[in-house]
Structure formats: C-alpha cells, structure tokens
Amino acid sequence: MDLRILALSDIHGRNAGLEFALKKIAEVVPDALVISGDISGSGDLARITDILNGIKHPVLFVPGNMDPMAFTEAVSKGHGKCQNLSGRRILVSGIGFVGIGAQISGFLGDVSDLERVMEPSDILVSHFPPYGFNDRAHDGEHIGSTALLEVVKRVRPRLVLTGHVHESPGLMRSGGTVYVNPGPAFQERCAVIDVPEDGDVLVELFSG
Q1: Whole-angstrom Cα distance, residue 136 to residue 121?
Q2: 138 neighbors 159 (Cβ within 8 angstroms)
C-alpha cells in the first residue's frame, strides 16, 4: 500500500511552526505525520501537547535535544495515534518506522539498538542526521553522527528523516537510501513524501 508522509522537524514550540504544521496537514492529508524532534523548546508546553493530541492522523515522533522528558511523556500518553518512535519499530500501513531520539544533553541515544529492530525496507527517523547527509552547519562543517551513518550503511533503510541542522534542509540519495531533512517548521519548511509499495520514494520539499 502506498503511504503519504508529511515530514516536519524543529517546530520549537513556536506559533509559526504549529500553525504551519496544521495548515499543511489540511492541505496534504497525509497518512502519517512524522516529526524529527525539537517539537517544543519554547512556548506553552500544555498547548503544544493538546495540539498534537488533537491531530486525527497517526503522529510519529522522536524527541530532540530541546524536548524535555516531561513533555515527551505527556505527548506519548495523549492518545494512541501519537507515538514516540525512539527505540521502537511501529508499522503504519504495513511500512516499518524506527526512531532514535536525542537526549537533552545533545547526544543521540544508543545507536546500536537500531540494528536490533530496523529492517532494510524501513523508514528511520532521527533528530540528528548521519554524518555527511544534510548536516552542514553555518561554518560548513559536517556535524552529523558517524555512528549513525555506519548503522545506516549496514542496514540500508529505505528512507532516513532527520532534522536538527536548521541550515541544511535538503534531499540526498546514496546506496539505495533517501535522506531528507525537511528544514525547521518554524521557518515554514516541510517535506511531502510518497512511499510506494514498490518503486522510488518521491519527495517534495516546501518552504514558506
């Protein structure tokens, strides 16, 4: 079954990001909303939680380094359609999603755990990007995770969705894997991704 994803990242609790997310959901009508971390970080956390819990589509997310544990737990408990992917594999329309979140200290979780749950046909959602893929900081340096890159190379997921590096939105392809950083939602950026049962993953990047 084909699957349409609305990919967001780095909302940072800002009204502009939340309003943009709701607008794109209405326009795109995705099968799943996927958020690559840093949902909060500022603003009214209870309001942000209520908004996420009110979305009718499945919402899959990983926490970012700006998402406090209390917020992550509150969102996860909101309702059955809003789920924290970190360290888990969840099926949506027969397609596997696996996630790895960031810690408040700014480090990834245990990357080695991914290989126990991820399959080659899966979609990997990570707040931090793998090294060399949509990870250039303002100074031009690559700041992605080399450990995550090694796991991706070994398992070869079909699609990798990331965030964190605001200045490096984009689409890259390598070794059969598609890498997408939709860019920060508070800057009105997102990606609409169509994942067919067979064939190429189609990606369209949007910016306000």
Answers
A1: 27
A2: no
Give the C-alpha distances (Å, rounded to integers) separating 29 from 23, 79, 88, 188, 193. Answer: 10, 19, 25, 17, 12
For 38-87, the DSSP string reads: ---SSS-HHHHHHHHHH-SS-EEE---TT--HHHHHHHHTT-TTEEE-BT
Question: Which class would CATH give 3-207?
Answer: alpha beta
Query: Beta-carbon neighbour count of residue 106 at 10 Å?
Result: 12
**pLDDT (tens digit per residue) in 33-76:** 999 999 987 667 788 888 888 888 899 999 999 888 887 877 77
Q: Record the tokens describing residue 192, joined without a space.
A: 């609409």
pTM over 0.90? The answer is yes
